[in-house]
Amino acid sequence: MNPVHDPNVLITTPLTEDLLRGALDVERTEHGLLPHRLPAGARAQNVDGQLAMAESQPSGVRVVFRTRATTVELEALPTKRVYVGAPPRPDGVYDLLVDGRLAGRGSVPGGHTLTIDMAAGTFERLPGQPGTVRFDGLSDAVKDVEIWLPHQETTELVALRTDAPVEPARDPGRPVWLHHGSSISHGSDAASPTTTWPALAAAAGGAELINLGLGGSALLDPFTARAMRDTPADLISVKIGINIVNYDLMRMRAFTPAVHGFLDTLREGHPTAPLLVVSPILCPIHEETPGPGAPDTRSLATGRITFRATGDPAERAQGKLALGVIRDELARIVAQRAADDPHLHYLDGRELYGEADHAELPLPDALHPDAATHRRIGERFAALAFGDGGAFAPR
Fold first, then answer.
1. Among residues of the chain, what percentage have pLDDT more than 70?
2. Is residue 3 predicted with pLDDT exceeding 60?
3. Which helix (H) or strand (E) covers residue 344, if one does?
4. pTM score > 0.90 for this model?
């Protein structure tokens, strides 16, 4: 690379798929590139607007390149959400990593606006304009740069500008960890894209993350299983349960074969990869009470969003699912299958966040962990999965 550059003269580099990590597909739009976390075939089989929104939010997706640049600009067109009756959401955060270390943080102003009325079940989309996040004052040494995109803000990438040429980053040589879960894995109320619990765990465990945490959409969908089957990965985990209860999606009769089918599909593409099944973290509203879950209208009246369970604990006798029931069944399924699959493992989610944690760090909306809890879950997952004796420990 040419070490001579002028920070006042920026070079525009075409955004191409080889500058992205963590996306399973990239769509060309009228503005630029839209990263997707599900491939086109899976998206074509989906009819749910929640999943369509979630998979287009680039949790774990980052723009990665090698450069001597001291100034980096990324122009993007975000879609920002507004919830009727709730306080305004902060702008999505872009984390800049240089050689693996946090070196900057910023946001993009403007963008489209999606207004969601949870009480009425309606939404309205208003178009907006692109904006730019700028990082400057960087070293002029050759370095690997990563820009982690906002984990909960659909982001179309318009332009990459730098004051020195860029080239694709080198293969880091780390194992690829493919993870699927709910909004908690997606990032929920984490402070930034590198501080979601999967991102923290991947950094601590020395893994390259592909995060298929899909808010409201960890529902054992066959197209998600096939997407995971067809994605190259060295380590795989699936966190199952909370969304199935939230939606009151299925009874035990359907749940057990659906779990087996999902795991069967993963094994078609990854027959011997370490596969870790993770049950739900503690969530008191759903421990013994089935769904569906619903926004608590009393909290909406006070400008907050909290959730409640609307089912009846007695309905568990008819096969309705609560988290305690799901944990027991997942443990049983994994134990049964592990007799013939020595690479299959189970982790009780309460080891990541349990009763003592809830007493110290309660879930602010009764469903999602906050930033401090994401950090705790990430640290614990790294120790339990990547540490000595863990499912992902080097063999």
1. 96
2. no
3. strand 344-347
4. yes
